Amino acid sequence: MPQLNPNPWFFIMLTSWLTFSLILQPKLLSFTPTNSLPNLPAPATTTKTTPWAWPWT
């Protein structure tokens, strides 16, 4: 079966992943997002939860 032969496809996959991880990924990660979120303080309020009343207990 020719689809089980990894000879040409493994090299293509390995080359594409190395290209992406060594060349393209650092270039893409160097960009800063234009719509960055402001540094908002965390809310100081905590919510009080009540336990669930199970009918069979």
Automatic annotation (TrEMBL):
Q: Which GO terms describe its cellular component?
A: mitochondrial membrane; proton-transporting ATP synthase complex
* InterPro entries named in the record: ATP8_metazoa, ATPase_protein_8
The listed locations are: Mitochondrion membrane
Keywords from UniProt, A to Z, are: ATP synthesis, CF(0), Hydrogen ion transport, Ion transport, Membrane, Mitochondrion, Transmembrane, Transmembrane helix, Transport
Q: Do you know which Pfam families this protein is assigned to?
A: ATP-synt_8
Q: Chief location of this protein? A: mitochondrion
Q: Which GO terms describe its molecular function?
A: proton transmembrane transporter activity
GO biological processes: proton motive force-driven ATP synthesis
* Sequence intervals crossing the membrane: 6-24
Q: How does it sit in the membrane?
A: Single-pass membrane protein
PANTHER family the record matches? ATP SYNTHASE PROTEIN 8
What is the similarity comment for this entry? Belongs to the ATPase protein 8 family.
The protein, known as: ATP synthase complex subunit 8
* This protein's encoding gene: ATP8
